[in-house]
Design brief:
Largest sheet of chain A: 3 strands, antiparallel
Largest interface: A-B, 20 and 31 residues
Distance between the termini of chain B: 86 Å
Number of strands of chain A: 3
Number of strands of chain B: 4
Order of helices and strands of chain A: HEHHEEH
Shape of chain A: globular
Mean pLDDT of chain B: 63
Number of helices of chain A: 4
Radius of gyration of chain A: 13 Å
Mean pLDDT of chain A: 83
Helix content of chain A: 40-55%
Distance between the termini of chain A: 15 Å
Number of helices of chain B: 6
Radius of gyration of chain B: 22 Å
Oligomer: heterodimer
Low-confidence stretches of chain B: 1-26, 50-94
Shape of chain B: elongated
Strand order of the largest sheet of chain B: 1-2-3-4
């Protein structure tokens, strides 16, 4: 992919988040990616996207299980625009 | 002692008798006492999740959020106490959530940004999957989840260190 600003995996994540306005957990992203995203790297990718402002994470105060609460990730307006641009450019990952 | 609560507990020899019940001459079964104790803790602000009729997981407000108190037929010894405080000590066991110690150590050595974005979500996933496996009663899956979780965290930390070293060395080339 000849895009210097968004890596292939990052586009894939944006594509997966597109159809879920409520957002997805990291594990749900891994499951939805059919093996293209790994458990060990998904949060690094999501962290980078968050830094770029394409993705936002929401942590609910109350956890759904004993322990730390899991963050839920969703697209920002900027992320949506990047995804649309990637689709227009015909990048396959953006159509995930 | 043929009262309504005439039960000697799981081992057939222990029961609980506080001053009130002693005066009534009745023994209370362990299961009922555990239930009542949980109710009392719930009233104090604890949130209780019942995993099975015999076991329950409780998160108590007065403990740090990463401390879980478990009770169950397999875990708790037979209640053999005379006071409520003794009952609390003998019938409950503190269990630290998997990854909680790691999260505490990480506070000392990792940046808050890295912890919030990478480490804590991974620990939260591991705890979530561990709780799911524990609810299903699958101890083998519990172990697998822990081994996989810690392995992935170790890999992520090592790759993070390698990345940081690379970034430090690169300008000197």
């Amino acid at each position: 992919v000849g895009n210097p600003f968004v890596a292939t995996k990052e586009l894939l994540v944006l594509g997966l988040l597109r159809d879920t306005p409520k957002g997805l957990y990291g594990l749900e992203l891994v499951r939805a990616s059919d093996g293209r995203l790994q458990r060990g790297t998904v949060y690094v990718t999501l962290g980078r996207l968050e830094e770029k402002g394409y993705v936002k994470s929401i942590v609910h105060g109350k956890s759904d299980h004993p322990g730390l609460p899991r963050p839920r990730y969703s697209l920002t307006a900027q992320g949506q625009r990047v995804l649309e641009a990637a689709q227009i450019m015909g990048l396959s990952e953006a159509r995930a | 002692m043929n009262g309504m609560f005439d039960d000697d507990g799981p081992n057939g020899s222990f029961g609980y008798m506080d001053e009130e019940t002693m005066s009534l001459g009745r023994r209370l079964p362990d299961s009922l006492l555990r239930h009542l104790e949980l109710k009392r803790m719930q009233a104090e602000g604890a949130s209780i999740t019942y995993m099975s009729p015999q076991a329950a997981t409780i998160s108590v407000a007065r403990y740090p959020p990463d401390v879980m108190i478990s009770t169950g037929a397999a875990q708790s010894p037979a209640v053999h106490a005379r006071t409520r405080d003794e009952l609390r000590v003998t019938s409950f066991r503190h269990v630290i959530h998997p990854g909680a110690r790691l999260a505490r150590i990480a506070q000392l050595i990792l940046t808050p940004k890295f912890r919030k974005r990478c480490l804590e979500p991974m620990i939260a996933d591991m705890q979530y999957e561990h709780a799911e496996a524990a609810n299903a009663g699958d101890s083998l899956l519990c172990t697998f989840v822990l081994v996989r979780g810690y392995f992935l965290i170790a890999v992520m930390l090592l790759s993070g260190i390698a990345d940081a070293v690379k970034r430090l060395v690169y300008p000197w080339r």
